[in-house]
Amino acid sequence: MPIGGRISGGGGGAVDTSAWEVVQTWDWTSESAHTFVDNTAQSFGGVDWIPRNVTRSNSFQVKASGLEIGSSGSESSNRWFSTIQNGPALVADLSDIVTGYDLNDTLVLQAMMSPEATTIQSDGNEGSQYLYAGVLATDGGYGNSGGGNWIQSAWYRRLSATNNYYFSRYGGGATAGHGNNYAQEDTSGDAPGMIELVIYPGTGFSTAGSLDTDFQDPLTVTTGRFYGNMQTTLPKDIGTGSTTAPGATPDFTLRPANLHVGLFFSYLTTGGSRASEGRVTFTKFRVLKRK
Amino acid sequence: MWDQDEMSAGTDAALADYGAPAPIIELGVINDVLYLSLKSAAKVLLAEYSYTLDGVLTRIT
To answer: Residues B14-61: pLDDT tens digits?
Structure first.
């Protein structure tokens, strides 16, 4: 579906009905081939992209089919969970893409992708193997003990089942239990082809996904549509039980000063042997801003 | 500690008790209790459960 369009006004002037401006699009199938080196930036479309946690990937490259990130049983388990942010991710500073945006803006990240499990072990430990792939909004932290300030809109699959899910999760903060919460919706079919993450900087976010094979207008996809906020200081049960006052200043952690965007894949093993493999191929990524 | 396996176990238990597919599942941990909301594709609440780390499942609604 195209963004916006034009209609004729009564006075003869054209009116732009599009609410969104496409700030930049990356067609990863047309970019120069490149194999990433951990923490070493590479410019695509005039923006520096930095690969994180490359040692936990078995493929982290741009090739003819797109941006491919994979992980297998040969690498250590990896994930984006609370302050554990060691899943392979390609990250860029959002300010390098959208110049001068502020708290009044609404920004949208969309990716076209093909995530898949390429090997599924059959030794009884499949239920402890989890794959995730999608887009991130993050403060740029990464590694085994990052800041815990991130949001993801993703594909999720547990390898003991064939179900594919739209998956929404935030990293949470320092309070116990933060980062556990997530929401999932069965795609009732294949892995999602399109993933969306809408950012209201400093306040909230919305995630969605679909089986579409090309970009859709922001906020029009209804499947996998979940909402959350970015504050991480206050307890999430504020206002219930004996906690009827905040008692702390809200800390909205993802702001224009620190917001980064990312494309990621992770393969988590929670127990038993680790002998499966998966990957994602991103064909396109774009950033939009509400006019 | 709640981790992916425990949350998956809670999901499996809730779905088994409900006895029918629930396309959307929202999971949240509050005070060491996992709360699960099962919803239809139209986002209509089908059932709510609590689940504890020792495997006790309780249907709330």
So the answer is: 999 999 999 999 998 887 899 999 999 999 999 999 999 999 999 999
Looking at CATH, the fold of the domain delimited by A18-237+244-290 is given as Jelly Rolls (2.60.120)
**Cβ atoms of residues A6 and A271 within 8 Å:** no
Q: CA nearest B2 in A: which residue? A: A180
Min Cα separation B59/chain A (Å) = 19
Predicted model pTM: 0.90
Closest CA to A137 of A193, A203, A205: A205
Does the beta carbon of B46 lie under 8 angstroms from any beta carbon of chain A?
Answer: no
Per the CB < 8 A criterion, the answer to whether A224 and A166 are in contact is: yes
Tell me whether B58 touches chain A (CB under 8 Å).
Answer: no
- For residue A85, give Cα distances in angstroms to A7, A94, A116, A159, A240: 46, 19, 21, 21, 31
Residue in chain B nearest A223 by alpha carbon: B41
In sign, the C-alpha dihedral spanning B15, B2, A173, A267 is: negative
Kindly state whether A183 is in contact with chain B, defined as any CB-CB distance less than 8 angstroms: yes
Q: How does pLDDT run across A213-236, given as a tens digit for each residue? A: 999 999 999 999 999 877 665 555
**B:1-40 residues touching chain A, CB 8 A cutoff:** 2-5, 7-8, 21, 23-32, 34
Q: List, for residues A64-117, the tens digit of each pLDDT value.
A: 999 999 999 999 999 998 889 999 999 999 999 999 999 999 999 999 999 999
CB contact (8 A) between residue A186 and residue B5: no
